[in-house]
Design goal:
CATH superfamily of chain A: Winged helix-like DNA-binding domain superfamily/Winged helix DNA-binding domain
Low-confidence stretches of chain A: 104-119
Structural class of chain A: mainly alpha
Shape of chain A: elongated
Oligomer: homodimer
Number of domains of chain A: 1
Radius of gyration of chain A: 20 Å
CATH class of chain A: Mainly Alpha
Distance between the termini of chain A: 11 Å
Strand content of chain A: 5-15%
Helix content of chain A: 55-70%
CATH topology of chain A: Arc Repressor Mutant, subunit A
Chain lengths: 119, 119
DNA sequence: CAAACATATTGACAAACTTCTATTCGACCC
DNA sequence: GGGTCGAATAGAAGTTTGTCAATATGTTTG
């Protein structure tokens, strides 16, 4: 139940950098060589390599070696799934976590024991 | 042009924490008192206060004082807008930034000058 | 094989983030 | 007014992140 927050937060963290967001945008219409991506930024090659690794480890992009070059592309399923999860979290819904919390709170006011204090 | 990455990344960063993501989920069906939110976590009150401020400053939630209590609620427009921006960035589109980059790259191969090296 | 090239890895350092304790602020109640 | 309660702020410690220079790895080419 809590794992979804952990995983989703991890993916959002990978995207929470203007550079990486722009990279995703650049990849959105097809795969691209690292060297081309690099030319769009004022960063060194190791920095780009690090950023690509962050996106890879979050599962948001894929890589493909071809000779000397590395080509990156979006993992569209993962990105769409991420957006779907966010939609779920932002929207009202009958089994919302908040109702459980409110219920626990009411029970707490009466009995004062056993809240679900999971992180 | 680059500002959208900066702003979007900032909002994603606010959401890139499991706690804050869970808080947004909790608020998704209505406003909630800080004291109730606090009961759902193993954190101190100042920590929650800090997290709520992060969400507030990102423009993702609103606050309302009522006597001693503070009630928080989602800024649904901002959250929906965020999701829409992500949709744009994840999807293919004819005026995609990647095409501009590729074009700049091709021109560079021929003339070797004047790339758009904006961050 | 040696040189050149595209990436990845390592190590270092500063900036930013997370979380806590202690304290302050504001509102309510006797 | 003094005490209490909920929340915000300040300050500090520990952790993580972003970035670079230097170096290593792997691939192609002469």
């Amino acid at each position: 139940m809590e794992r979804i927050y952990q995983e989703t937060a991890g993916k959002l963290k990978a995207l929470s950098d203007p550079k990486r967001l722009k990279i995703v945008d650049m990849l959105s219409c097809g795969e691209m060589c690292a060297c081309v991506i690099l030319e769009s930024f004022h960063i060194t090659q190791p920095t780009l390599s690090h950023d690509m690794r962050v996106l890879l480890e979050a599962g948001l992009v894929r890589d493909r070696r071809e000779g000397k070059n590395t080509y990156y592309s979006l993992n569209r399923e993962a990105l769409d799934a991420l957006r779907a999860v966010l939609g779920q979290m932002f929207q009202d819904k009958p089994d919302c976590i908040c109702r459980l919390a409110e219920q626990a709170c009411r029970e707490g006011k009466e009995g004062e024991q056993g809240h679900d204090r999971s992180t």
